[in-house]
Automatic annotation (TrEMBL):
Keyword set, alphabetical order: Disulfide bond, Repeat, Secreted
GO cellular component terms listed in the entry, alphabetical order: blood microparticle; cytoplasm
UniProt keyword annotation of NADP present: no
GO molecular function: small molecule binding
InterPro entries reported in the protein's UniProt record: ALB/AFP/VDB, Serum_albumin-like, Serum_albumin_CS, Serum_albumin_N
Species in which this protein is naturally found: Esox lucius (Northern pike)
PANTHER family: AFAMIN, SERUM ALBUMIN-RELATED
Protein name (Swiss-Prot/TrEMBL): Albumin domain-containing protein
SMART domains: ALBUMIN
Any one Pfam family match given in the protein's UniProt record, by short name: Serum_albumin
Domain of life: Eukaryota
Length: 649
């Protein structure tokens, strides 16, 4: 089987990190000697822009035997190469049209072909981010069209920072799926149709890693290929729309969450999270290998989270120069070896989803903290941070089934015991007493059982009813929140539970659900002013990263909330509910529940069941009526008045 810590530290750190956080391309076997773009590129402005972009994509490989542009072109093929150039242009030129980029893309391909010729030039590997910006600033039409005048008046680092700040900080969470009448255009020129989508999506998401945008465009193409060939194309597109948009939101959410943690909690928490993740996935690695790996990964977050894609990609490329080329490392792993066989744009997603490798034979089942307490306390008094990282490493490698948050809570309690006891003569007994109630294995079992019950509830009640219950639950906790916020939270939570509970066999519900629920709370606390909701939400948002979810879970309904009066005019129920799409009916039902729950925070489960049942009866009755509008106009006020009477009980 495996032994721990038997490979090169730098090799492991560079290789796994580059796979887990890939640039838009990775390193590959040597192909041709270095080339000189100066021979290929003319001095015309348009060609200067293209050359600069290509050099920017090459992100300073600085190797003696590789031609970076030819390397990218060879590995991504012509279509993939065009997509990379398209994304780069779209993200930097938000006001330009697709037609503005097409000549540049054609020239980029021509240059790449020349780079792969028998007589290439020598300067392909320059770091040309500054040249790219200078080239853009030399084009008056590009400056004016994209409002870059203020950036181009700056120089050096200030100009680079201005280009980054110029990008929108928002990420587009909604991607429209076309109607069936566009299937003709899709079939007529599929490549052009998908290119338009990728260009538009990249303009709306200028801070997203290019390979992620390309993966989303691939998913988009698969939806259209499936549905446009279906006899009921529109029905198919309607059914696929929600799942596709959910997938886009999930990708965006996952990318955003680590940046929020980095900003709100700092490097310490991010390093702790990454220490857990890598220790769980590669338990063969030594502690020092994990530390080096984590420190290098976290160093990429400031530029990547700020939207500085040039610097971000460069840093990741520097870490990934030897990706998958170290046979000794790859041969020691299962998951990493499989991911190395994936297409370069798929590798990052592969490692993110990678299951933990089998534990080494020499690794004990549980970590006995008390057996090493003398050494731990000695080290803790000298370097508390390093000692806690070592504890996290030892626990995580043995418990891949645990969530990161649970291990962090364990380490926090251990830290308190060390602070209290390590300076005392009887520190072994003191620590043992302080941690008498701390049973990690028991906590993992209990939390896993809790989430299994959640999964069972979703299965038993059905998806729609489960989402209603989540909406009611969160409305009771924070009735001051807007309907839109509560709708998004309940929809997101339901999506998390559904995805995690229906994951492949062998996947830990605890690991999946708690990670994603915590990330959702982080986003909610980050994007909204907690003080505008209520003091208890503010309290939970101010908790440590690991304690946010337990804090919210311990909250009780806000019975101090002053309920508003019920006004039938605030409820919209009409023929639109008869649309075969569930979304409209779900939103209508939630708006009804929003008004009723806020009117009576202590609404019971039985009362809610009666109201939702009456709603379904009314909907079925009016949707079957010949005059649907008249039916809803008569029945909706009755439903509201009957519900109000029920809540007086």
């Amino acid at each position: 089987m495996y032994k721990r810590g038997t490979s090169s530290t730098n090799s492991l750190a560079q290789s796994l990190d580059a796979i887990l956080h890939p640039p838009i391309y990775n390193s590959f076997p040597p192909l041709r000697p270095s080339v000189h773009l100066s021979v290929i590129c003319s001095v015309t402005m348009r060609r200067l822009v293209v050359c600069s972009l290509l050099m920017l994509l090459s992100v300073s490989v600085h190797c003696q035997t590789q031609n970076a542009i030819c390397e990218i072109f060879t590995k991504t093929k012509e279509d993939g190469f065009q997509s990379l150039v398209l994304v780069g242009l779209a993200q930097n030129l938000p006001n330009s049209e697709l037609g503005d980029t097409e000549p540049l893309i054609k020239e980029a391909v021509a240059m790449a072909v020349k780079c792969c010729s028998d007589a290439p030039s020598e300067d392909c590997n320059w770091d040309m981010a500054d040249l790219f910006r200078s080239a853009l600033c030399s084009s008056e039409s590009l400056i004016m069209k994209n409002n870059l005048t203020h950036c181009c008046e700056k120089t050096g680092a200030e100009r680079a920072e201005c280009f980054v700040d110029h990008k929108s900080k928002d990420l587009s969470l909604t991607v429209e799926v076309p109607a069936a009448d566009q299937c003709g255009d899709f079939y007529k020129d599929t490549k052009a149709f998908i290119k338009r989508f990728l260009f538009t999506f990249s303009k709306h998401n200028p801070r997203m890693l290019p390979h992620v945008s390309m993966l989303i465009s691939k998913d988009y193409r698969e939806v259209l290929t499936k549905c446009c060939g279906d006899a009921e194309a529109q029905t198919c597109l309607d059914n696929k729309k929600s799942a596709f948009q959910h997938g886009v939101r999930k990708r965006v959410h996952d990318l955003n969450s680590i940046c929020i943690v980095h900003k709100n909690y700092g490097e310490g928490v991010v390093k702790a999270r990454k220490t857990i993740e890598y220790s769980q996935k590669v338990p063969q690695a030594s502690f020092q290998e994990i530390v080096n790996m984590v420190d290098q990964v976290v160093a990429t977050y400031p530029p990547c989270c700020s939207g500085n894609m040039a610097k971000c990609i460069k840093k990741r490329k520097e870490l990934g120069d030897r990706i998958c080329s170290d046979e000794s490392l790859v041969s020691r792993t299962v998951g990493l070896a499989a991911c190395c066989k994936e297409n370069i744009t798929q590798r990052g997603a592969c490692v993110t989803k990678m299951k933990p490798d089998p534990k080494p034979d020499d690794l004990s089942e549980h970590y006995d903290l008390h057996a090493d307490i003398g050494e731990i306390c000695n080290n803790f008094t000298k370097d508390p941070y390093h000692t806690l990282r070592k504890l996290i490493y030892e626990v995580s490698a043995r418990h891949p089934e645990s969530s990161q948050q649970l291990i962090l809570r364990y380490s926090q309690m251990a830290e308190q015991a060390f602070l209290q006891c390590c300076d005392k003569e009887d520190h072994p007994d003191c620590v043992k007493t302080s941690l008498a109630d701390l049973d990690l294995h028991k906590n993992i079992t209990n939390d896993n059982n809790e989430f299994k019950l959640l999964c069972a509830a979703e299965t038993a009640t059905g998806e729609d009813k489960f989402e209603r219950r989540m909406f009611v639950y969160y409305t009771k906790l924070m009735p001051q929140a807007s309907f839109d916020l509560l709708h998004r939270v309940s929809e997101t939570v339901h999506g998390i539970v559904h995805d995690c509970c229906h994951n492949k066999p062998g996947h830990s519900d605890l690991h999946c659900i708690e990670e994603k629920l915590t990330n959702t709370l982080d986003v909610m606390c980050h994007n909204n002013d907690p003080s505008s909701i209520n003091p208890r939400i503010t309290h939970c948002c101010n908790q440590s990263y690991a304690m946010r979810r337990p804090c919210v879970l311990a909250m009780e309904p806000d019975t101090e909330f002053t309920p508003p009066e019920l006004d039938p005019k605030n409820f919209s129920m009409g023929p639109e509910l008869c649309n075969p799409q569930k979304k409209e009916a779900m939103v209508s039902m939630k708006k009804l529940l929003y008004g009723l729950v806020r009117h009576k925070i202590t609404i019971t489960e039985d009362q809610m069941k009666t109201i939702t049942s009456n709603y379904d009866i009314m909907k079925d009755k009016c949707c079957a009526a010949e005059d649907k509008a008249s039916c809803f106009k008569e029945q909706a006020p009755k439903l509201i008045s009957e519900s109000a009477e029920l809540l007086k009980v």
